Amino acid sequence: GAVVSQHPSWVICKSGTSVKIECRSLDFQATTMFWYRQFPKQSLMLMATSNEGSKATYEQGVEKDKFLINHASLTLSTLTVTSAHPEDSSFYICSASSPGDNEKLFFGSGTQLSVL
Amino acid sequence: GEDVEQSLFLSVREGDSSVINCTYTDSSSTYLYWYKQEPGAGLQLLTYIFSNMDMKQDQRLTVLLNKKDKHLSLRIADTQTGDSAIYFCAEAGGYNKLIFGAGTRLAVHP
Prior knowledge:
The structure holds two protein chains of two kinds. Chain A is mainly β. Helix content of chain A is 0%, strand content 53%. Chain A starts with a strand and ends with a strand. In chain B, the strands form two sheets. In chain B, strands 2, 4, 5, 9, 10 and 11 form a six-stranded mixed sheet that branches. In chain B, strands 1-3-8-7-6 form a five-stranded antiparallel sheet, with no helix packed on it. In chain B, a hairpin with a 5-residue loop joins strand 9 (85-92) and strand 10 (98-100). In chain B, 33% of the residues are buried. The mean pLDDT of chain B is 88.
């Protein structure tokens, strides 16, 4: 199946700094990518839908100035957690759908963010 | 509103069958999915079923859908220790916007 690569796998940062997470579709072009957040022992929560060449669509309650999403190319979307705080510590996962295979979503391996 | 519910934990003996259940609320869901998540890893799509189907079988996996009761189940035959993971069911109403259940942790013991 299609491959989605997410980087880094884990990151530790100081409170107040910004962290960028990359999501790449390796063998297909993804016009739409999705960013999820997962708290321990909880399900994934959709944060935003990232559309190539346009602004991301954020879910209710997600701060767009806090979680900056850029989808500059058909194979790359980035999520930047700005001015990170300990409560931003979480597992972030991206996903993308493969053209012609729209019923399937392929997920990255996730990024564990720990803010000290 | 949209809601997906699963039991949180299931323990089975190696070699037995596992059945993970899920209920959903959005009757307009077109696809329903089962994902597997191993510790610290992303989600792996196991299988999916279109809403006009009752059953889908894929090797050791069998998905049953009762659309009237909005009930979805995943059966894993001959469960192995490598099947130990968290299993999420998800429904898709709109284009690729998935609503996930909280996940069922499957523990397989000798």
